[in-house]
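BUG: 3D viewer hangs when loading the predicted structure for this chain

Environment: internal workstation, default settings.
Expected: structure renders.
Actual: progress bar stalls at 90%.

Input used:
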Amino acid sequence: MPLPRNDPRQYEDLAGEWWRPGGGFELLHWLAAARGALVPPATRPGAVLLDAGCGGGLLAPHVAHLGYRHIGVDLGRPGLAESARRGVTAVNGDVTALPFADGSADVVAAGEILEHVRDLPGTVAELCRVLRPGGLLVLDTINATWLGRFVSITVGERFAAAPVGIHDPALFVDPGDLTTCCSAHGVRLKVRGVRPSVPGLVRWLFLRVPAHGRMIPTRSTQVLYQGIGRKEGTQ
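Structure tokens produced before the viewer hung:
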């Protein structure tokens, strides 16, 4: 029997896709690279980068040179095992109730996780709670527009750009709602759209080989968008 949409158990069945060249998570690698490009070098010894919903550790190679202790939190143990193999300190936990003290992270990265949570305000509150004053929040997610639903579900699942049932479009995230939630916790979030490079996307979709594509900034936030914001106060 198929699992319900957005059921986290799907990631157990897809564990082999995290690092398979040209596999089903190819686009997530491109998003991870774009997310990592927003993270600055650490400014103090022992600085912590908290990777909320780390999955298989796709962010790791893009931040390994920046001087952080990279801690990844996820519900899925197979993904955490992949993260640990890539140097991430793997913690089994829920992003809606992070097992960390207030102000314990210099950077919080939340990549492709907010469109999976049922309590957006509560999750954002947790991400901001564990962030140090002056710390940086970096995220990316899918917009709650008809175009976001069409591209991610109707087109994406049909052409295998996303695993069938991995998303519930009812949970997609309006950027206005997200910036309001962040502002309530002292983080002024700025958003911008991103899209995959067309040559890389075509090469991956039709040849199913590593395409070495990338995410390109765009004015439109109608499908995918990034957010970056700094918490009020000084470290």
